Amino acid sequence: MAHDVLKGSVESQTGRAGWLIIGILLGGILLLTSYLIPLFPFFRLSDEVNRQVWGQGNFYEDLLATVGALLLGMPIIIHAVKHLWHGSMHMDELVALAVIAALAANDPKTAGAVAFFLLLANLVETRTALGAKASIESLIRISPTKAHRLKDGAEELVDPQVLRPEDVVRVRPGDNIPADGVIISGQSSVNQAHITGESLPVDKAVGDEVFSGTSNQMGVIDIRVTRAGADTTLGKVRKLILQAQQTRIPIMRMIDRYAGWYTPTIIMLVGIVMFFRGVVAGQGDALERAITMLVVACPCALVLAVPTAMVAALSCAARLGILIKDVSTLEVAKDLTAVVFDKTGTLTTGELAVTRLQPVPGVEPAQLLAAAASLEQMSKHPVAQAVARIAQKARVALSQPQEFAEHAGKGVSGLLNGRRVLVGRRTWLAQQQVDFTPVSDPAMDEPEGLSTLYVASEGKLLGWVGLEDRTRPEARKALDQLRQLGIRELVMVTGDRWSVARRVAKEMGCSEVQAEVLPADKLELVASLKQKRHTVAVVGDGVNDAPALAAGDLSVAMGAAGSDVAINSASIALMNNDLERLPFLIKLSRKTISVVHQNLMFGVVFIVLFEVLGAMDYIKPIQAAMLHFCAATFVIFNSARLVRFGEELHKQPAGNPVLTPRIAPQPVPAQAKA
Fold first, then answer.
1. Which of 42, 176, 178, 668 is most buried (CB neighbours < 10 A)?
2. For residue 666, what pLDDT is reported?
3. How far is Cα 256 from Cα 3, in angstroms, rounded to an integer?
4. The domain spanning residue 176 has which CATH number?
């Protein structure tokens, strides 16, 4: 009966648990009173009345015990009959048989005590399972109940469910953000721990994305809604986590397979004991031994061994921003032997940054940057935006270009103060008859691993700008942790140039690197690792890695917050970009499966040991019920340890250091050397 708590809503189950508490308290009081009546002679009837009315017992004592036993035992009996009526064998039939047998043997105290301790164990199991589920839902049921929508210059209070894309809402300090959107006015710090697992608030300004259910900490911000209701990141996460609770791992399916013959086998063993003890040996304690064996055999500890551990693990993962869409993948994670990483957006930030300026002799670095940024400010290309950002940080005065033109895959051109300026690839500038003699000196060569933009004015080269995709600060530490966990094959794949790929792979300590690959090449790489009997995890940003993610035994999408593609493309989604969540996921998987095995081993040993002791009459039915309660409590608290696993990761996410461009030293002209 208790394990049904893992199905349905928390509210309905909490209501049923409330009625169960009332029934247990009332039945327990009646049962306890029946035990206390012999201490009060006032309630005793005369021996003659006892013999005439109730036989040899005390009327009040037996009446209260019988009513208490019925009140406590009927829920168990009704639950067992209901399952039998629907044609399914259930574990509670054993306890129901024990209660019925004790009542039939005119032993209402034993029947009541057995039912009391079994219901008490069920109550503890129910409340604990509800607590684990509630802790998950508390992480994902945090949407606000109101929203301040701005319409026609006025502010109106509305239900968040009526919000639609392009609506504008105002969020004040202390309010929850009612929908996913982009800040169009104001700045603040937002606590988004429920979505990404980041423990400290994140600074947000105009243009930054915010998520439904996160909390505004400081300033007033106006947000243009992009997704509302069930379409928000929070809505999708909630739906997927609740679906994950209904999935099953192979161990759970194995238990279901054996459940069909478990109850008949126990009944057969009980019948054998009763036959040899009662019929053959002629002893009168055969029924009592049978009741003890039935109570011990109720396998609540076994049934709850896996679900309680899995729900606790899901709760732990959700708290740290790890979205597990199927608990079976949690079991796969412990056996990983190879991990394939996409470079851009996974090991690197995916955002290019200017890290070097190389002007030709006679040109100032500020002049080079101003010429490049004045044109690039007009482009939306990531490379152009990186150049414009560094110029803004350096407070370089920019000019407005005339006759601006963008040449796809080559560069940009325009007029600055009447002079024609080109910014782009070296090959394109060479086609435009730009003289590259000023960079013929080896000191002016491009360093390996940098993407470069060449800048020319009126056919004369001004120099080049070097950019690189910054690696994530925590990535190297995460890969080191994976190696410590026994994963030796750490492969990086990218469509980028070999020079860039080798730099990043060397910095990360990857065991293998593949560059300039197409999506089909990534699939072949995963397939080849599988052929070598590796269990492969594929990690990407979920945007352009969907085929490779689908090919892995385990697929992990990075930075899934706000990305429908990332959430839907992988079996596990990391809601933030902290790669240290990946080794933690493997640790959580191994810890969870270890706890499951501990629970199962304890449950099997408990049943076998005390079945034998019950058959030998070393324990009585009431003692068996108390032991059952203790066994269930052990399993529950052993699983509950997983909820707090990994608390050390609740720290400030590692930030990306700001890289300032290094101005290369000017080469000395040949005539100066002479």
1. 178
2. 45
3. 13
4. 2.70.150.10
Q: Which of 177, 199, 231 is the last residue of a domain?
A: 231
Cα 444 to Cα 435: distance, rounded to the nearest angstrom: 14
The structure tokens 């909390």 sit at 215
What residue numbers bound the domain in which 226 lies?
147-231
Strands laid side by side in the 572-574 sheet: 322-324, 572-574, 554-557, 536-540, 338-342, 489-493, 512-514
- 226-253 pLDDT, tens per residue? 887 766 666 666 665 555 555 555 555 5
- In this structure, the answer to whether residues 192 and 252 fall within a common structural domain is no
Alpha-carbon distance of 67 to 63, in angstroms, equals 6
Asked if residue 86 lies in contact with residue 41, where contact means CB atoms within 8 angstroms, the answer is no
Identify which of 183, 190, 224, 230 has the alpha carbon closest to the alpha carbon of residue 207.
183
Q: Which residues are catalytic?
A: 342
d(CA 638, CA 627): 16
What does the alpha-carbon distance between residue 185 and residue 197 come to, in Å, rounded to a whole number?
A: 26
Neighbouring residues of 504: CB distance < 8 A, sequence distance ≥ 6: 343, 347, 348, 449, 469, 471, 492, 494
- Looking at residue 590, its pLDDT comes to 93
Q: How far is CA 36 from the centre of its chain?
A: 52
Q: Are residues 431 and 476 in the same domain?
A: no
Give the H/E segment covering residue 342: strand 338-342
Structural domain count of the chain: 4
Supply the pLDDT for residue 606: 92
- Top-ranked range on mean pLDDT: pick from 128-137, 257-266, 453-462: 453-462
Structure tokens at 430: 């060479």
Dihedral angle sign, alpha carbons of residues 324, 471, 468, 512 = negative
418: region left, alpha or beta (phi > 0 left; psi from -120 to 50 alpha): left
- Cα distance between residue 94 and residue 88, in whole Å: 14
What does the alpha-carbon distance between residue 427 and residue 410 come to, in Å, rounded to a whole number?
A: 8
For the chain, how are helix, strand and coil distributed in percent, rounded to 5? 55, 20, 30
The token pair that represents 278 in the structure block: 């009662």
The residues that bridge with 451 in the sheet, in sequence order, are 467
Measured CA to CA, the distance from residue 355 to residue 376 in angstroms comes to 16
**What is the value of pTM for the model shown?**
0.69
Q: How many angstroms separate the CA atoms of 12 and 98, rounded?
A: 29
Residue reference for tokens 């996160």: 214
Q: How far is CA 254 from the centre of its chain?
A: 25
CA separation, residue 429 to residues 81, 287, 426, 599 (Å): 84, 98, 5, 69
The Cα angle at residue 307 between residues 294 and 554, in degrees rounded to 5: 145
Q: Quick one: 271 and 393 in the same domain?
A: no
Confidence band for 542, pLDDT divided at 50, 70 and 90: low
512-514 and 536-540: which strand pairing? unpaired
Q: Which has the closest alpha carbon to 82: 67, 96, 64, 69?
A: 96
- Tell me the residue type at 363: V
Cα angle, residue 547 at apex, residues 546 and 548 outer, rounded to 5°: 95
Residues 198 and 326 in one domain: no
Indicate if 127 and 267 belong to the same structural domain.
Answer: yes
Q: Decide: 399 and 421 in contact? Cβ < 8 Å.
A: no
Could you tell me which of 456, 476, 458, 466 has the C-alpha nearest to residue 579?
476
Q: Is the dihedral of CA 361, 365, 366, 367 positive or negative?
A: positive
What average pLDDT score do residues 644-654 get? 62
- For residues 159 and 134, membership in a common domain is answered with no
